[in-house]
User: What shape does this take?
Amino acid sequence: MANRSSTVPLGMLFYKFHCHKCGEKLVRSPRTRTVKPGDPDYAEHSRLGAHSHFIGDVELTEYCFKCLSCDTFAEYEEQCVLSIIQKKLGRAVLSADDIKENRETAQKTLQKRRSVYHCCLRLLTLVALLLALYFVLKANGFEIHF
Ligand SMILES: [Zn+2]
Assistant: This one.
């Protein structure tokens, strides 16, 4: 029996994306490939928890976007960049020049957006941990003064 793993980026579930060739709404489309020990991304996908790993091949299902009307495929990362250009220009359909001219700025925007997002996430996690610690100590009869 093969090991199975699947990944879907969170943004893929929460945001709607549109095809840059025809403007139609994109659908998620699963693609399955086998990751073998020794492949560059094997360690990342063979993870079964913090410390344990699968042994042997991993059958990995990844999601990308597919346009049902013009059959265009787009990886999630690429579609994020295209989506920023679409918003900036105020239209879904992009020409090759539109993409070429705006790609670099869009990639920078995406990176900036992600680092802000991760920063907030880290801060929220820290606050949640401190609150949990506070209540655990309080429940155990410790007096806490600020
Ligand atoms: Zn399309």
Notes: DSSP finds four helices and four strands in the chain.
